[in-house]
Every structure is written in C-alpha cells, then in structure tokens.
Amino acid sequence: MGATMLQLPTAQDRIVMTEEFPGFSVEELFAHFVQPDLLCLWWPKEAEVDPHAGGRYHLFWPSMSWSLLGTIYEFVPDERVGFTWIWEGGKPADNPLKVLIGFGRSESGARILLEHGQFEPEDAEAREGIIEGWIHFGAKLKSLRT
After folding, report:
1. DSSP code of 35?
2. Which terminus of the chain has a smaller tally of CB atoms within 10 A, N or C?
C-alpha cells in the first residue's frame, strides 16, 4: 500500500494517477468526491456541489483566497465523475482543464483512476502544482480510513 497517489507515465498534456483507498467501499469513496460534507473532510474548507451531469460545483479555501469552480460533465454514481477545473482568476473559462475520476474495487477497498488535462506547454509549472496537490489531498483522503 503506497502512501501517495501514483503518477502513471503519460504525455505532458495530461496527468494520470491512481491510488488505492483501503477501508473504503466504492460507494463511500465516490461520496467523498461529490457530497460537500464529506468533501470538506479532506479537500476544501467549504464546498457547494450540485451532484449530477450539468451540475455546478464551487470549492473554497477562504484562508488562502482560493476558489475552484466548474461544471460536472459526467456523473455515473459509484463509477465515475468528470468536471471542468477553473481557478477563479486563473486560466480562461473558455478552455478549462478537465478531470475524470473512475472508481473501482481493489483487494483492500476501493481505488481511483484520475485523468487531469489538457495542459498546454506553458502550463508546466501549474501541472506540477496540480500533481503535488492531488498527492497531498489524496493522502488526506486516505488518512480518513488508515
């Protein structure tokens, strides 16, 4: 069992990561990505989520003045969730990054396969920061059961 999410080899225009979450059922793990009260246990300090395809979400870190928002473009309960990724004041909203997270069972509980992109060559620094963020927050999520 690894301590952090594993980054899989891919082109520089996207990130692909996977991780196992011992002690979680697939249903519980999915819920931790789409239910505000569970989401706030490991990722943002505050969250608004309308959990369905076409729904919007808004995540807040008030002490850092960070605000992440977007639209859920794919929503299959307990299987996958996809959403646009727009930092308020960041990359133009007309060309947002997209995140797709697939959920599955593992020997020890549940796992995710996360794809995040499409990054432009000039996004290299932001891409590295996002990788670090997924590793950090993935470890926080995992710690809820270990």
Report:
1. -
2. C
